[in-house]
Amino acid sequence: MRAQNRFSAQFVKSAPVGKHCDGAGLWLVKREDGGAQWVLRVTVHGRRREMGLGGFPSLGLAEARKQASRWRDVAAAGRDPIKEREAEERAARREDISLAILTADAFEARKAELKGDGTAGRWLSPLTIHVLPKLGKVPVTDIDQRDIRDTLAPIWHTKADTARKAINRLSIVMKHAAALGLDVDLQATDKAKALLGKTRHVPKNIPAMDWRDVPDFYASLDEPTLTHLALRLLILTGVRSGPLRNLRLDQIEGHVWTVPAEAMKGRKGATADFRVPLSAEALRVIDLARPHARDGLLFPNTRAGVISDMTLSRMMQRRGLEARPHGFRTSLRTWLAEATDATHEVAEAMLAHVVDSSVVRAYRRTDYLEQRTELADRWTAFVTGGAQKVIAFKTVD
């Protein structure tokens, strides 16, 4: 029997179910449903590769042999025909390797690492607002440092933090494109930074209240409104406003509030939930807020969702205060440093900061809950002006 071109046109039409070899690696795979598929088997660098060429009858015998001959030559030259074809298809559809499409693809690949699977859009927003409007349609293989410089120059000094996030995430997208086999310049973002120069922007810390002034402010929160109660609990626990505003009643058990890992910010590499010790005063504030609860949320908005961060900030702003709610974390951290003997690790754990390397954390399997409980009680005693002194709320008619 001939080693190649074994089939006749009539055989291809009437071939029984199964695999049939035309020779030189070209196979016809006939299915039970009557359909058939052409498959080419080649060996590249000692590894067998199977390449689908198309279905019969849309791809006839003559064309299948022609394609098989072409891809055998590619394999004989030491190149992978499957990868060669993928590269040709990408070149034929250059819009498919535009920065916009590669950005979306990179985002999909990273979603599991992001808080809430990136549903808030914060990872994408620096790119969608400042980069993609100008470079979104450009093939990622064509983007160089001058394109990046010209795109980010308008915000490089005026919105430095946003520009930094944009260029860092653009670097991630470029690396993702390279991993897909695209010929991109992985140094383009670093070269762009060199062209843009050092930013003149001086970052500003969020204004914080001096820890010595916190007791007076806490005592002034004497109305049983959601805003006052939320600010009280924010001060007592030292958490960020996001987890506090989204606090659910089923997250509280005894004197511990467990914040889900996905709700925590700034804990990259940490997968465990975060336990927050609740003092007697904190539990009292939670009880006072319970009548406001809706759908399991302790601090619901009047319409839907939860109270906004701006609600808390505006309340302090109306009082003429420079400090903002997030600043109470700084107040607590400074009090820990100046008024207690808490170790660095425990003090950082009070604010849910991740410290040390992943290796050290792997061996140090504790969240210092017992020590943090004692410190939370001491902080509460200080904030309330005594040994957890109960502050009466004003009666609201």
Features:
397 residues, alpha+beta, Double Stranded RNA Binding Domain, DNA polymerase, domain 1, hpI Integrase, Chain A, 4-stranded antiparallel sheet, 3-stranded antiparallel sheet, 18 helices, 7 strands, Phage_int_M, DNA recombination, Site-specific recombinase XerD, Integrase_DNA-bd_sf, DNA-binding
Describe, in plain words, how this protein is organized in 3D:
InterPro entries: DNA_brk_join_enz, Integrase-like_cat_sf, Integrase_catalytic, Integrase_DNA-bd_sf, Integrase_DNA_bind_dom, Integrase_recombinase_N, Phage_int_M, Phage_Integrase. It comes from Sulfitobacter litoralis. Residues 204-376 form the Tyr recombinase domain. With 397 residues, this protein is α+β, with helices and mostly antiparallel strands. It has three domains: 9-90, Double Stranded RNA Binding Domain, CATH 3.30.160; 95-196, Tyrosine recombinase, N-terminal domain (DNA polymerase, domain 1), CATH 1.10.150.130; 211-383, Intergrase catalytic core (hpI Integrase, Chain A, Orthogonal Bundle). 45% of the residues lie in helices and 10% in strands. It has helices spanning 9-14, 61-76, 81-92, 99-110, 125-130, 132-135, 145-152, 160-179, 188-196, 214-220, 226-237, 241-245, 280-289, 309-318, 327-339, 344-350, 358-363, 369-383, and strands spanning 18-23, 26-30, 36-44, 47-56, 252-253, 256-259, 274-277. The protein has a four-stranded antiparallel β-sheet with strand order 1-2-3-4, covered by helices on one side. A three-stranded antiparallel β-sheet has the order 5-6-7. Strand 5 and strand 6 (256-259) form a beta hairpin. The longest helix is centred in the middle third of the chain and has 20 residues, at 160-179. The chain is elongated, with a radius of gyration of 31 Å. The termini are far apart.
